[in-house]
Amino acid sequence: MLTRSKPGWAIPEASATPEGVYLNRRALLKSAALPLILAASPLAAGLARAAESSDPSAGLYPVARNPRYSLDRAVTPESEVTTYNNFYEFGSQKEIWRNAAKLPVRPWTVTIDGMVEKPQTVDIDTLLKAMPLEERLYRHRCVEAWAMAVPWSGFPLKALVDFAKPLGSAKYLTMQTFLDSSVASGQRQFWYPWPYTEGLTVAEATNEMAFIVTGAYGKPLPPQNGSPLRLAVPWKYGFKSIKSIVRFAFTDKKPDTFWEHLQASEYGFWANVNPKVPHPRWSQATERLLGSGERVPTQLYNGYGEYVATLYSGMEKNEKLFM
Ligand SMILES: Nc1nc2c(c(=O)[nH]1)N[C@H]1C(S)=C(S)[C@@H](COP(=O)(O)O)O[C@H]1N2
Ligand SMILES: [Mo]
């Protein structure tokens, strides 16, 4: 999904990082740095997680799975999800994970402003303690026609909206990624409209499916997947699920989002998944599963129509809901 250099979808799949080639840092730390006797107790498991990630939130995971959100397919291997990424701040190739993994995620603050009762900036660990964490199994469908299924941990975006206390006049929620080209070399590419910006209507943001992800596979989220907090709106194409968010701003104007700004004829504000509406340059009828490589049919709203279709009733005539 690129307009000025080699498009991501044109990269041969064989160039994706093969599983298991790289040293597993966690496995190494576990075996070398921790006395065996400690590894047996639950407390030690928490300590081990804290040590392996040096992430102060490590002790919060794993969290209880919410059985309401289940899958029609196998969970994608963790090694695929953490090594095949779209994170243009670190480059437009899928293999940028080692650079992205160096993103410092502490200290990290989140600013909540715009049309709210009281603008505020909160520390990520304070926010995490205030939010109701749970695990959900979600599908993810990239506009480039690859897909994955991930056990995300996090909290409903609605909990953050309630915490923010938006004014009744707010219609949209704008979200922004960090801006620091000293750690994210992609942000030196001046033709992109940094910082990465995404948006939802307040109605979408408070839908039960809209989820803020803070962990995956029972651990803190790796930076390459958008830690310390990223969005998951699985009924929409993956580019809506903005990573490493630093700002939530409520507004009454439709947000100027990153991909729509770059290429409005191909990537719109709504971006709801629909197998019957092709991308101008490729079909959206099927998707390739990361891991197995299997091709499966794509579903309307990525299979989440029962939760979200009513958000759009009556809008089909005037809005391009599916691009
Ligand atoms: N800040 C930011 N968020 C982003 C992107 C990005 O380049 N920058 N890419 C998006 C796209 S196109 C997809 S498919 C998903 C990929 O998430 P993953 O790497 O965790 O699979 O992140 C989305 N969020
Ligand atoms: Mo994507």
Describe the structure using short key phrases.
323 residues; alpha+beta; Sulfite Oxidase, Chain A, domain 2; seven-stranded mixed beta sheet; five-stranded mixed beta sheet; 9 helices; 18% helix; globular; binds ligand MTE; binds molybdenum atom
Mean pLDDT: 89
Elements, N to C (H/E): HHHHEEHEEHEEHEEEEHEEH
Count of runs of 4 or more consecutive helical residues = 9
- Work out the strand percent: 15-25%
Using the coordinates shown, work out and report the CATH topology: Sulfite Oxidase, Chain A, domain 2
Question: What does this entry look like structurally?
Answer:
The protein has one domain: Sulfite Oxidase, Chain A, domain 2, CATH 3.90.420.10. Helices cover 18% and strands 20% of the residues. It is built from 9 helices and 12 strands. The strands form 2 sheets. Strands 3, 4, 7, 8, 9, 11 and 12 form a 7-stranded mixed sheet that branches. It has a 5-stranded mixed sheet with strand order 2-1-10-5-6. Strand 1 (109-114) and strand 2 (120-123) form a beta hairpin. The structure holds ligand MTE and molybdenum atom. Ligand MTE binds next to loops.
Give a quick rundown of the structure.
This protein has helices at 25-33, 42-53, 78-81, 97-100, 124-130, 157-164, 202-205, 258-262, 305-308, and strands spanning 109-114, 120-123, 134-141, 146-156, 172-177, 197-201, 211-216, 219-220, 230-232, 245-251, 286-289, 295-297. It has 323 residues and is of the alpha+beta class. Strands 3, 4, 7, 8, 9, 11 and 12 form a 7-stranded mixed β-sheet that branches.
